[in-house]
Specification:
Layout: E1 2-6, H1 11-22, E2 26-31, E3 46-49, H2 55-65, E4 69-72, H3 79-84, H4 86-107, E5 111-117, H5 140-159, E6 162-168, E7 170-172, H6 184-194, E8 198-201, E9 207-208, E10 210-212, H7 213-222, E11 230-234, E12 240-241, H8 242-253, E13 259-262, H9 277-283, H10 291-302
Parallel strand pairs: 1-2, 1-4, 2-3, 4-5, 5-6, 6-11, 7-10, 8-13
Antiparallel strand pairs: 9-12
Helix pairs in contact: 1-7, 2-4, 4-5, 6-10, 8-10
Length: about 300
């Protein structure tokens, strides 16, 4: 199998590339290194430094490679940047996705697996969100992801390119950049490492569904052969407040951590938890890493390194 991972020099993409290589896949990474790092590119993967906004260059590359499957993870994923620079966000997440789809179709790829986000639901007041709940984005990042999903579905209707859309909960783990959507764990690890107080926006009672990166990787791998034309949640179906997160990190650190409270930010969602029952059924997948264990592994690699 020949696989392409866009954004493969980034957080989730680099872990996915490693897993594909371990399965014997001929793995190619496309990344412009705007937020990814060349040191994250696995030694056995072929690296192509390319911006997905460059449609002609992307089509030529995929025509040469003729991939079986494309994992599209490259994105502008910083919520606050999307609010400040909506045109840039749209160029990467909408135009970039359109370019990836056209290149994949023209190259004869069998399927695209798309990384989306729980942010598309906005502040819907549900204890646990299902894939049938309406989208109501409150940031341009979430809006561009929702629009990209619709583009993928219509592209399938018109051209037949198979897809699986995976809406991620808040992914965390080693290599996560301390910025962008869902990066609170990485931000906290960065501040623990440098001896600074943890910064909490708002009262800290906002909740998230935190899922470890290796569980996300396994869901992507499961989507190779399952979940065709499906929209699925990659999540734990469990809520954790930011205050509970700081307490858990304090226990791992071995001492209470200082916390600095700041005003809540525009575009930040109050509560988010995703029902993963559909993914469990269609992908024959389930998350395997409890949050305490995932935090310990991340702490060991990011703080004790």
């Amino acid at each position: 199998m020949k696989a392409i991972v866009t954004g493969g020099a980034g957080f989730i993409g680099s872990h996915l590339a490693e897993a594909l290589l371990s399965r014997g896949a001929d793995t190619h990474i496309i990344d412009n290194l705007s937020t990814g790092y060349s040191r994250y590119v696995p030694a056995d993967a072929a690296f192509h430094e390319l911006d997905i906004r460059s449609g002609e260059a992307l089509r030529k590359l995929l025509a040469d490679l003729r991939p079986d499957i494309v994992f599209h993870l490259a994105a502008q994923a910083d919520v606050q940047r999307s609010i400040k620079e909506p045109s840039y966000d749209a160029a990467v997440n909408l135009l970039g996705t359109a370019n990836v789809l056209e290149a994949a179709r023209d190259a004869g790829a069998g399927k695209i697996v798309f990384a989306s986000t729980s942010g598309v639901y906005g502040n819907l007041e549900r204890e646990r969100l299902s894939e049938d709940d309406p989208v109501a984005p409150i940031s341009f990042y979430a809006l561009s992801k929702a629009a990209a999903e619709a583009h993928i579905r219509l592209f399938h209707e018109l051209y037949g390119l198979s897809y699986t859309i995976l809406r991620y909960a808040n992914v965390y783990g080693p290599r996560q950049t301390p910025k962008g959507e869902g990066g609170v764990v990485a931000l906290f690890m960065d501040r623990i490492r440098s001896g600074r107080p943890l910064r909490v926006f708002g009262d800290g009672e906002q909740t998230r569904d935190f899922i470890y990166v290796q569980d996300v990787v396994k869901a992507n791998l499961a989507a190779i052969d399952s979940g065709d034309q499906a929209l699925l949640h990659v999540s734990t179906s469990a809520s954790t407040s930011v205050n509970a997160l700081t307490a858990a990190l304090g226990a791992i650190h071995g001492a209470p951590l200082a916390v600095e409270h700041l005003p809540a930010r525009a575009g930040d969602i109050r509560h988010s938890c995703l029902d993963n029952a559909r993914a469990r059924l269609q992908l024959i997948w389930q998350p395997a890493t409890p949050i305490d264990e995932g935090l310990r592994q991340t702490y060991a690699q990011e703080v004790l390194r």
